[in-house]
Amino acid sequence: MANKNEYLILFMITQFSCSSSPTFIVTKDLAPIIFKTIGKEAQSEGIILNCEFDTSLHSLKKKAKLAIQISNDIPLSTRLYPLIQMIEAAKSSNDKFILWKPLR
User: Please, what is the angle between helix 76-92 and helix 53-64, to 10°?
Assistant: First the structure.
């Protein structure tokens, strides 16, 4: 696992994509929270498989219910909403996966 400094360099901007939803990007302040919440390793590229959609959705929705603000007074629930919507769209469209990768 990368140390904290390597992690921040890897995730300056991360893009999530799937075939049934518009792309969604996050900055370095949100990426670590997302990956920890859905139980994924801190890697520059990765995948959320169809069989992981339910667990990921549950974890993100649970985290979104907490009254947390991470930057600029924007609630965490607002910052997580696009990914929650993406996973729900992928699930209802029976997509096989959601990918993430860094934008350079």
Answer: 160
